Amino acid sequence: MEQQQQCAVKCDLCGTNENATKFCMHCRETMCGHCSEIHSKSIASQAHEIIRRSLVSSYDILDDMKCSVHQSKLCEMYCVTCDKIVCTKCVTDNHRGHEFDQLDKLFKTKPKEFETLLKDFNQIVTPKYLRECEILEKRLLEIENNQAATETEIHDQAEAFKACVGTLEEKLKRMSQVVIKSEKQPIKNALASKRENYTQLQKTIKEMQVVLEKHHIANIPLLLNNIRQRLSALSSEEDIAIHTETAVFEKYEISLERLETFFGQFSVGTPGDLRKRTLPPVKTPISVKKVIEIRGTSPLSSVTIANEKELLISGDKYGFQISKESGNVQMEVFQKFGLREPAVVLSNGLLVARDGKCPNKIVKILSNQVRTVFLDLTVDIITGLHITRKSEILVSVVQSEDCSGEVLKYDKLGEAALRIYQKESGEALFAYPTSVTENLNGDIWVVDKETDSIEILDRFGLYRFTYKNSDILKNFKPHSLTSDSNGNILISDRGNQTIHVIDRDGRALRYLDTASLGISPTGLAVEAPGLLWALDSDKRCCSLLNYF
C-alpha cells in the first residue's frame, strides 16, 4: 500500500530498478531492496543505517544539500528574490539585501504551487490542446480530400481538351500540388509544434513529480519555471485560423485566353520577353453574383475582406463592417476608434489603420477593442497599407517637404525591415505612392497616384519595371490593386472603367469589362479563386464578380 501511494523512484545505485524503497542515512542515497542488501553486507558500508525511504523527512535531506556554486558549503537558506536555494557564502557574495526563507518552508509551499500548475494543465491546457489538434487534423483531412477531388476533376478536364492542349493535365497538377503543399505545410507545422510542446510538458511534469518524491529541492525552481513557460505557450490564445481554398479548379469552358491566365506563372523567359504577347489582351465579359448597396453620402474608396462573413468598406473618414450575406452594416469602426484610411485586417481579425488625428501614426485595435499605437513614423502622411503572407506590414508614405514618396516594410513586431525610395541609378521611384500589395513571388506592386503608373519592385526592393498606358487603353488611371491565387495582379482603372488582369511580369492578360455592367471600380478584394469584390464609390455599391 505504501508503495502504491508513492511515485516510482529509481535506485541511485543500479539506476534501473524503479522500486527504490530504502534510504542510506550515511550515504544519503535511495536504493532498491536488492542493492540495500548488498550495501548492508559490504565491509565498507555494513555499519551504515538503512531505513525505509518513507521514514525520511524533508529536513533530513535538506540538512546536507551541497551548494552548486560553493561545493564545500551546504545550502541552508532559500532566496525568495532569486527563487533559488543558497549557502551562507552565497548570501554574502551575491544575495545581499534579498528576502530569505527556511528550506523546509520551501518544500511546503512549492508543491502547492506545482499542484496549481498541474490543475491548469489538466483542466485548461489539455482540453484546449485536444480541441485545437482536432480542428487542425479535420482541416488537414479536408484539404487531402479536396486534393483527390481536384486531381480527378483535372484529369476529366484534360481528357476533354487533349486535342488542343496536350500539356494541360501536367500543368494543372503542378498548380494544384503547389497550392495543396502551401496549405498543408502551415497546418503540419502547427500540429508538430503543439505536439512537441505538449509532450515536453508531460515529461517535465513527470520529472517534477519524481523530484518532489525524492526531495531533490535544488531542481524545483528550474522545473517549475519550465512548466510555467510551456503552460503559457499552450494556453495562449493564438490564431489557428488557416485560410484554405475550397476548390482549386472549377469547371468552365477553357479558351486560349483563360489558359494563359492560369499558366502564366509557368512561362520561361525574361520580363521583357513575357510582355511581348503573341495575342493582344481582350475585354472579357464577367458576371455579377451579388450586389451590396451602402446607404449614406460619405465617399467610399476601398474594400477589404474582414473575415469569412464580413467586408470592411471604407473611405477617408468612415469604415463599415458589412455582412456579405445580408449587406447590413454590423459596425462603424473609424468613428468609434478614431481611425482613417488606409486600413487592413490581420489574419487573426485585428484591425490596423491610420490614426484619425495623427496622419503619421498606425493604430492597432486589439481583440478586446483596446486602441494601441503600433507605428509612429517620421513622415507627413500614410497613404497605403498591406499585410503580407508573413504578417509583415507594407506602408506607403509621402513626404510633402521634398515631394517624394517611399514604401516601408515592418515585421509583425514593428521593427523596420526595408525602405524603398529610389532606383539603383539614384532616381526617385515614387511621387505619390498609394495602394500597395505583395504578389505570390514576393514582388511589391505600388500605385503612383501622381504619375498614373504602377512601380514593380522585387522582394529586396530593387526596381523591376513600370506598368503604364498600353497600346489598347490610353487613359490609364490606376486606383487600387490586389493579387489573386494564380499570382496575377488585378488593377482597378478609373480612366477606362475596367479591371486589368496582369501576370507577375507585367503582361496584360485581359481586361474585365465592368463598364458594360455600369461599374466604375475603385476598391478591389479577392474573395476566392475567380471571385472578386469590386467597389463603385460613385454608386456606393460593392459587387461580387465572377471573372473566370
Automatic annotation (TrEMBL):
PROSITE patterns, per the entry: NHL (PS51125), ZF_BBOX (PS50119)
Positions in coiled-coil regions: none
Source taxon at top rank: Eukaryota
Domain B box-type, chain residue ranges per copy: 6-53, 62-103
Gene3D superfamilies on file: Classic Zinc Finger (3.30.160.60), TolB, C-terminal domain (2.120.10.30)
The name this protein goes by in its record: Tripartite motif-containing protein 2
InterPro entries: 6-blade_b-propeller_TolB-like, NHL_repeat, TRIM45/56/19-like, Znf_B-box
PANTHER family: BONUS, ISOFORM C-RELATED, MEIOTIC P26, ISOFORM F
Swiss-Prot/TrEMBL keywords: Repeat
GO function terms (MF aspect): zinc ion binding
